[in-house]
Structures are given as structure tokens and as C-alpha cells.
């Protein structure tokens, strides 16, 4: 390793966004917020798992689904109250009545009508957090009562295991205290960045869609291992544990300021060794261009959906 590649061993990072910080809801002396999760699919389900494992009491959560069968399955899985629209026409309105924080977790095209349907049932101080791609603050605020606090967010599914990352864009009526409540809640299961709305499409391209890029890389690594003669289970575990280990190592070093991704990569590449050949192969096959195009495509699609929904209004 050359001197510019040298890196020190970091301690455990302690900074904003790390789970396990003081001041989380649910700790002694703090009243945990009451939470409503409207829609309990991949994303809201991941947030719910992360919150229940860290900072929110089961009795303080009410969730909703469309079908009764899904409501029963999710209620059993998470040990919470889940109301189904199929059985209770007012399920979403009922779920939000006592809530301090309301997560809107349906597909983008359903967010505005969902917000409109609960507008009159929300407590005036309740903060509404949309997890939807592409739905901007103007659309959200326009669907709710004047003055209702709103935060646009872009989370990712590793929140379910306490290792997510979330971008938050506070709306006009979200006070510092509202933002702090949501930030503290989500910091119990991931890193949180408060950003400007102009940055959210780019953030979506990196961290919102990004877990899929890591899973795709793992799929391809495992497939390549099988082609080299490994059995599928071994190849899949080698790929998953390698991405997990590299990710944790990179986060620790980057946050401690001891090494960045490029330095860590170079430290694996022995001169004229195996990894150097692999990185050369990546470069010959256009790896950097492919990643750049993928992030750009996700960010552009987010902006495109915003335009589609705005013109459909
Ligand atoms: N899946 C992901 O990794 C991420 C998703 N998002 C956003 O999260 C939102 C949800 O996406 P997914 O969870 O992937 O979709 P999903 O389809 O898994 O979940 C949406 C759920 O909402 C339910 N639903 C629809 N209308 C409802 C209603 N009126 N009342 C109650 N439940 C209702 C659906 O039955 C479904 O189970 C989207 O807006 C997406 O942009 C954001 C970041 C990452
Ligand atoms: O694919 C999507 O549109 C959503 C938003 C970011 C991740 N999943």
C-alpha cells in the first residue's frame, strides 16, 4: 500500500445519524411519539420494523392496509394494530386521529388522494411525513389543511435493520421541533440528512434506489461464483457478507475521516495481483459509466414522475 493509501483504524463513529444516540424517543424521561403508518408495503414496513426495534412502543403505532388479509398478517408479524380499508372504510382517518407523526407510505400516484382523505382527521400539530418518490412539498401541502406540518422524505429499506439512510425536506409549516421529532425518530434506525428539496432527486438516485444496486451487485457476484463451480448458497453468502463487511468498514472509516472508498479499494489491490485485474476488467466493461448512468436514470425518473403528476393535477 502506498503512503497516500494508508489509513488508520477508526473507532466506532459517533455522529448525527448513528443509531443508539442519546435523546431517542422511548428513552427514560421522554414521551415516545404516537405513530400512524398509512400503507404497510416494502418501505413503510421497513420503517416500522426499524422503529419497533429501537424507539417506538407497539401500543403507540396504528397502521393501515387495503386488504383485511394483509392487515391480519402484518398485525401478527409486528404485534401492532392494523386497520384494513376493506373492512373499515375510514381506516386511514381513524389511524391518524391520535397520531403525532403520520407516515404516508403508498405509491406516488396515491399520495395526494390519501393526504386529502385524512386532512380533516389530523391533529393540527401532527407532522405528516411522505416517503414517496417525486411527490413535492407543494403537492403535499396543497392536499392538507393550511398550516399542517409536512416533511417530504426519501428513506431506504435498510432502515428495517437499523442501517438505513433518510433525506428529510421540511415544509413551510414544519417547525424546528417538528423536524427534530422526525429526525430523532428516524435516527433510531439510520442516518438522517436534512436537505434542500432541490437535492432530493439526486439523493433518491444514490440512497433511495441504492440498496437495489448493492443487491444487484451481490446477485451478479454470486452468479459468477456459481459459474466458477461454487454451490449457490456458498456463493450467495460470500457475496452478501463481503458487501456487508465492506459497507460497515467504509462507513466507519469515512465518518472517522481515516479513509475514503478509493483508499479502501486501493488497499485491497496488491500490485499486479488479483484485485487489480478485477478492477481493470470493471473499467474495460464500463463500470463507472454504468453506475453513473444508473444514478442519473433514477434521479431523472424522480423528476419526470413529479412532472407527470403535476400536469395530471
Ligand atoms: N421500496 C423502496 O425501497 C422505497 C419506496 N419509497 C416510496 O415508498 C412508497 C411505497 O412504496 P413501496 O413500499 O415500495 O410500495 P408497496 O406497494 O410495497 O406498498 C404500498 C402499500 O400501500 C398499500 N395501500 C395503497 N393504498 C392504500 C390505502 N389507501 N390505505 C392503506 N394502504 C394502502 C398497498 O396495498 C401497498 O401494500 C412509494 O411512494 C415509493 O416511492 C421510497 C423509498 C424507497
Ligand atoms: O423505485 C422507486 O420508485 C422507489 C423510490 C426509491 C426506491 N424505490
From TrEMBL:
Residue ranges of the region described as Disordered: 1-35
Database matches in Pfam families: F420_oxidored, P5CR_dimer
Keywords carried by this UniProt record: Amino-acid biosynthesis, Cytoplasm, NADP, Oxidoreductase, Proline biosynthesis
Annotated catalysed reactions: L-proline + NADP(+) = (S)-1-pyrroline-5-carboxylate + NADPH + 2 H(+); L-proline + NAD(+) = (S)-1-pyrroline-5-carboxylate + NADH + 2 H(+)
Pathway assigned in UniProt: Amino-acid biosynthesis; L-proline biosynthesis; L-proline from L-glutamate 5-semialdehyde: step 1/1
EC number per UniProt: 1.5.1.2
Subcellular location per the Swiss-Prot or TrEMBL entry: Cytoplasm
GO molecular function: pyrroline-5-carboxylate reductase activity
Residue ranges annotated for the Pyrroline-5-carboxylate reductase dimerisation domain, each copy included: 197-304
Biased amino acid composition, Low complexity: 9-21
Annotated ranges, domain Pyrroline-5-carboxylate reductase catalytic N-terminal: 34-133
Family statement drawn from the similarity comment of this UniProt entry: Belongs to the pyrroline-5-carboxylate reductase family.
Cross-referenced HAMAP family: P5C_reductase
Free-text function comment from the UniProt entry: Catalyzes the reduction of 1-pyrroline-5-carboxylate (PCA) to L-proline.
Name under which the protein is recorded: Pyrroline-5-carboxylate reductase
Gene designation per UniProt: proC
Amino acid at each position: 500500500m502506498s503512503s497516500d493509501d494508508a489509513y488508520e483504524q477508526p473507532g466506532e463513529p459517533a455522529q448525527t445519524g448513528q443509531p443508539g444516540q442519546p435523546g431517542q424517543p422511548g428513552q427514560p424521561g421522554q414521551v415516545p411519539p404516537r405513530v400512524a403508518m398509512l400503507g404497510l408495503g416494502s418501505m413503510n414496513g421497513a420503517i416500522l420494523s426499524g422503529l419497533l426495534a429501537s424507539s417506538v412502543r407497539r401500543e403507540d403505532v396504528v397502521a393501515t392496509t387495503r386488504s383485511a388479509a394483509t392487515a391480519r398478517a402484518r398485525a401478527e408479524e409486528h404485534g401492532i394494530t392494523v386497520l384494513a380499508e376493506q373492512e373499515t372504510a375510514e381506516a386511514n382517518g381513524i389511524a391518524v386521529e391520535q397520531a403525532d407523526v403520520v407516515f404516508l407510505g403508498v405509491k406516488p400516484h396515491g399520495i395526494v388522494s390519501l393526504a386529502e382523505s385524512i386532512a380533516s382527521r389530523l391533529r393540527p400539530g401532527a407532522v405528516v411525513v411522505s416517503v414517496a418518490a417525486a411527490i413535492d412539498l407543494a403537492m403535499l401541502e396543497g392536499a392538507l389543511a393550511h398550516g399542517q406540518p409536512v416533511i417530504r422524505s426519501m428513506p431506504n429499506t435498510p432502515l428495517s435493520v437499523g442501517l438505513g439512510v433518510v433525506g428529510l425536506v421540511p415544509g413551510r409549516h414544519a417547525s424546528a421541533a417538528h423536524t427534530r421529532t422526525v429526525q430523532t425518530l428516524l435516527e433510531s434506525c439510520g442516518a438522517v440528512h436534512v436537505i434542500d428539496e432541490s437535492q432530493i432527486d439526486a439523493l433518491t438516485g444514490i440512497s433511495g434506489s441504492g440498496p437495489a444496486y448493492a443487491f444487484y451487485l451481490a446477485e451478479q457476484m454470486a452468479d459468477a461464483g456459481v459459474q466458477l463451480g461454487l454451490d449457490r448458497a456458498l456463493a450467495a453468502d460470500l457475496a452478501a457478507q463481503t458487501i456487508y463487511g465492506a459497507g460497515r468498514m467504509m462507513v466507519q472509516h469515512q465518518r472517522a475521516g481515516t479513509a475514503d472508498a478509493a483508499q479502501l479499494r486501493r488497499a485491497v489491490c496488491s500490485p499486479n495481483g488479483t484485485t487489480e485485474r478485477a478492477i481493470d476488467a470493471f473499467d474495460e466493461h464500463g463500470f463507472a459509466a454504468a453506475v453513473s448512468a444508473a444514478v442519473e436514470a433514477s434521479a431523472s425518473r424522480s423528476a419526470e414522475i413529479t412532472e407527470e403528476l403535476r400536469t395530471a393535477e
